[in-house]
Amino acid sequence: MIHIIGGGLAGSEITYQVAKAGYNVILHEMRPEVETGVHKTDKLAELVCSNSLKSKDTKNASGLLKKELERIGSFVLEVAKRNAIPGGKALVVDREAFSNEITQILKSMPNVKIVREEVTCIPSENSGDIWVVASGPATSSKLYAWISNEFGKSAHFFDAVAPIVEANTIDTSKAFFANRYEGGTDYLNCPLNREEYIHFREALIGAEVLPIKGFDKKLLFSRCQPIEEIAKSGFDSMRFGPLRPVGLTRSDGKKFYAVVQLRRDNSIGTLYNIVGFQTRLKWPEQDRVFRMIPALKNVKIVRYGVMHANVYIEPYKVTDEFFRAKNRKNLFFAGQITGVEGYVESIASGLYVAINILRVLNGKMPVTFPRKSMIGALMDYVARTPDLKPMYANFGLIDKNNVANVIGVKEMLSLQGVKNEN
Ligand SMILES: Cc1cc2nc3c(=O)[nH]c(=O)nc-3n(C[C@H](O)[C@H](O)[C@H](O)COP(=O)(O)OP(=O)(O)OC[C@H]3O[C@@H](n4cnc5c(N)ncnc54)[C@H](O)[C@@H]3O)c2cc1C
User: Fold this and answer.
1) What is the span of the domain harbouring residue 97?
2) Is the pTM of the predicted complex or chain greater than 0.85?
3) Secondary structure, 3-state, the chain
4) pLDDT digits (tens, 9 = 90+) for 251-283
C-alpha cells in the first residue's frame, strides 16, 4: 500500500501516477477535519493564493518547466490546462473548476481511497508500506513536530496571500483593461498619480499589521514580500515592483506614475486578485488602505490577504537525492516541504517522486533526472544544497551553455530509462 499524506498539488500528482500504474493508494487529507489556516475549501489541489501558474513562454524558466512536465505526462498540469482562463502569457486557471476536477478524478479511481484525517506520525518501516509526506508549507503542527523529532533538523519561513475582490465593485471609469507590452485585455489596471501614490504609501506604512508569533522580516521570502514591507523599503520601491507603470501607455501618450494591476481570478470574471498585494495588514486596515486606490474606492474584498508560516525540511540533511529519508527507505517527501517554492515546482516535485516510487516498486533503482533539464536542475539543487532556502524554477540553476531544449527532455528521460520502464 502507498500512503500519501496531503492532497495538495504534489500529493494529487503522486496519487494519480501511482494509482494509474495499478497500485493501491490511500490519500490522507486532513481538511476539512483539521484546517491549515491558508486553504479555504475541502477540495484537493487547492491553489491557496494566486490563480496563476506563471508563464507559458518556454524562454521563461517556469514555462520551460511546464513544457517538460507536459512532455513527461503530468496529470495536475493537464487538468490546469483544461481549466485555463485568459491570462496573457501566463497559465491562469479557474481555481474552483481546477480543484473540483482533480478531486473528482481521484475520487473516481477504484484503487484510490481518500481518508479525511490528520496524520501525526508515520509507522515504522516494518509494515512494508510506502509513505510519502506531501503535506506542504502548512503541514500540521503535530506532523511537523514528529518530523522535527525524527530528523532533528527543520526550518521555516513566512509567505503571504494577496486579497481577492469583487469585479463589479471596481470603478472601471478609473481603470482600464490591458496587458503589459502586448495586446489583450486580461488585466485590469488602476493608475495612481504622484499625489495619490504618496498618500497611499503613507497609509500603507502607517497601517496596523497582524502580529505573528516568531515573525522575523529576514525570513520573508524575497519573491513574496508583503506590499507594506515593499512600501517601507523605499519611496519608489512599489513603483519598481507591483505598481510599476511600465508596458502601459496613457491615451495622451504620457507615462503613468504608478499602476496597480488586478488579474482575473475565475473564468466568469466576477473576481479579481490584486497582483503582488500579499499582506499582513489587519482586515479592516486592508479595506481602509486599499480603497485609497481611486478605482478601488468602493471595492469589496471577498478574501483578505493573510500571512502564514511555511515549513520545509532540508533534504540535504534528511533525504537522499530521490527525497527518500536517509534512515527510512519506505519514506519519501514531495512538494513544497522539500524546499521547492511554487505551484508548478510542487507539481514537478510530485511527478519526480512518483516516477521514482514506481521504479522502486518495480524493483529498479531510483534515478535522478538530467541536470540540463529544468526539472532535473531544480530537484538536484533542492536535494543537494546545504542551508537551503526555498527555490523556484530559474535559469540560474542550469549551466546556460547546456540548457536542454524542450523537445529533448522526454528523450533525455527515456535515454536514462526514467520513463519508458515504468
Ligand atoms: C500563503 C501561501 C501563499 C502561496 N502563494 C503562492 C502563489 O501565489 N504562487 C505559487 O506558485 N505558489 C504559492 N505558494 C507556494 C506553494 O507552491 C503552494 O503552497 C503549493 O500549494 C504547495 O504544494 P504542496 O502540494 O507541497 O502543498 P499543498 O498544496 O499545501 O498541499 C498539502 C496538503 O497537505 C494537507 N496536510 C497538511 N498536514 C497534514 C497532515 N498532518 N495530515 C494530512 N494532511 C495534511 C493540507 O491540508 C494540504 O491539502 C504559496 C504558499 C503559501 C503558504
Assistant:
1) 2-159+309-415
2) no
3) CEEEECCCHHHHHHHHHHHHCCCCEEEECCCCCCCCCCCCCCCCCCCCCCCEEEECCCCCHHHHHHHHHHHCCCHHHHHHHHCEECCCCEEEECHHHHHHHHHHHHHHCCCEEEECCCCCCCCCHHHCCEEEECCCCCCCHHHHHHHHHHHCCCEEEEEECCCEEEHHHCCHHHCEECECCECCCCEEEEEECHHHHHHHHHHHHHCCECCCCCCCHHHECHHHCCHHHHHHCCCCHHHHCCCCCCCCCCCCCCCCCEEEEEEECCCCCCEEEECCCCCCECHHHHHHHHCCCHHHCCCCEEECCCEEEEEECCHHHHECCCCEECCCCCEEECHHHHCECCHHHHHHHHHHHHHHHHHHHCCCCCCCCCCCCHHHHHHHHHHHCCCCCCECCCHHHCCHHHCCCHHHHHHHHHHCCCCCCC
4) 888 899 999 999 988 777 888 999 999 998 999
